[in-house]
């Protein structure tokens, strides 16, 4: 979990700050775009795993790591979108959004900050 979440955060910040340095858009808008593109999609990897018959446990690990990536990206995106649209937002909102997104307790858009 630590590597998946930290990797998404690091990727978001590297991409966001790089975009902010070369574009006319603000930092929050660049970080918002970075949150969208910073996650990985394991579909090709899982398909390859099925073709070469890797152990089922490895497939489950890759799919589980993808869930953490997606939950972290959704939490980052929701906090940044709140910051961009309302001018408010705190990073502790992101922690709660991550926990809600990963646990599956709340799947509607009204549950995000």
Shape: globular
Gyration radius, in Å = 16 Å
Largest sheet: none
**Average of pLDDT:** 81
Fraction of residues in H or I helices = over 70%
Class based on secondary structure composition and strand pairing: mainly alpha
Low-confidence stretches: none
Instruction: List the secondary-structure elements in sequence, H or E.
Output: HHHHH
Q: Give me the oligomer status.
A: single chain
Give the distance, in angstroms, between the N- and C-terminal Cα atoms: 23 Å
Number of helices: 5
Tell me what portion of residues adopts beta-strand conformation: under 5%
Total E-strand runs: 0
Note down, in words, how this protein is organized:
With 113 residues, this protein is an all-alpha fold. Helices cover 76% and strands 0% of the residues. The chain contains 5 helices and no strands. The chain has helices at residues 2-22, 27-37, 43-52, 56-86, 91-103. Helix 1 (2-22) packs across helix 4. It is globular and about 50 Å long. The two termini are 23 Å apart. The relative contact order is 0.13. The mean pLDDT is 81.
